Amino acid sequence: MQEGRRKGSLPLSQLSWSAAGFYLLVHALCLGVIYTGLSWHALALFAVGFAARMFALTVGFHRYFAHRAFKTSRWFQFVLALLASTTLQGGVIWWAETHRRHHRNADTSRDLHSPHFQGFFYSHYLWFLDRRNRVTCLEAIPDLARYPELRWLDTWHFVPFAAMCVGLYHYWGAEGVLWAGLLPTVLIWEITHWVQSFSHAWGGYRRYASDDLSRNHWPLGVLALGEFHNNHHRFSSSARQGHVWWELDVGWYVLRLWAALGLVWDLKTPTNLSQETSGASERGEPFV
Fold first, then answer.
1. What's the rounded Cα separation, in Å, for the pair 233 and 260?
2. How many whole angstroms separate alpha carbon 165 and alpha carbon 33?
3. Which pLDDT tens digit goes with each residue over 71-113?
4. CA dist 28 → 83, 183, 186, 194, 288 (Å)
5. What tens digit of pLDDT does each residue of 180-237 get?
């Protein structure tokens, strides 16, 4: 790791100006709510736009692609990748590969976004604007790279969001684009940032003595539809991340429904995972 990264700084020569400009542009466009105004219809659009895409992120990018916490068909795998790509968090293969790298090196000097080594601001915002972190390493994730449709989507990951916005504008005009498209995107970004930084920093509670500094934060876990971070780091390949009744895990509830419908199967849980099996998923190795 480079010295500047340990100190939490980002040299301007390593800043992805296109990514930073796009990030700021999306935030600026949200000011369009001044034009569209607030209404019950707008709030309904926001709720649906947030819930559907936050769910696709936690269940699709995170639990399925990064950790292989369940199995599904090839066509439904692509559907999950398409929906999760509308969150504008990069390509599906890139997202899964960098997240696996985080788990292999959690809260060490090799972690991509540990607040203890890179500093809070770098782990919260700057790490994904660092051009050194924005390259998809296909060789490191052969279980996903073998699918040509996922490689295509990893390259053209902005297409699903653009297509979604075209549809939203067709049916609901600027109000739809803002309230179901842009505003939920920014909120999902912020939730993701807070999970990556705050949930490795302070507060909350540690249910398990994991090898890292991960923590559960109840409000953040609920907002993220079940991302209880210390639970997750202890059983990273588990499809279930809420381990007691009051840790509300909407992602798990819907996965159970999908399993009943035959859309997914072989859901991993803390009761059927050994610590060794959890590690295997982070290396991209198949479950046995």
1. 27
2. 16
3. 999 999 999 999 999 999 999 999 999 999 999 999 988 888 8
4. 24, 10, 10, 20, 48
5. 999 999 999 999 999 988 899 888 999 998 889 999 999 999 999 999 999 999 999 9
**Burial (CB count within 10 angstroms: exposed 0-12, middle 13-18, buried 19+), residue 153:** buried
Cα(14)–Cα(256) distance, integer angstroms: 43
The number of angstroms, rounded, from the C-alpha of 184 to the middle of its chain's C-alpha atoms is 14
Residues near 34 by beta carbon (within 8 Å), at least 6 away in sequence: none
Give the C-alpha distances (Å, rounded to integers) separating 247 from 63, 142, 228, 253.
17, 34, 8, 12
Residue 164 sits at the vertex; the CA angle it makes with 159 and 166, to the nearest 5 degrees, is 95
Per DSSP, 171 falls in state H
When pLDDT is cut at 50, 70 and 90, the band that residue 7 belongs to is: low
Half-sphere exposure for 256 (CA within 13 Å, toward CB): 8
pTM of the model: 0.90
Alpha helices in the chain (DSSP H): 3-6, 17-29, 33-36, 40-55, 74-85, 92-104, 120-124, 142-145, 148-155, 159-176, 183-197, 218-223, 229-234, 250-261, 275-282
Asked whether 198 and 229 are in contact (CB, 8 A), the reply is no
Kindly list the domain boundaries of the chain, sorted by start residue: 21-209
Token code pair at residue 140: 């490191």
Cβ atoms of 57 and 192 closer than 8 Å: yes
Q: What value, to the nearest 5°, has the Cα angle with vertex 192 and ends 189 and 195?
A: 150
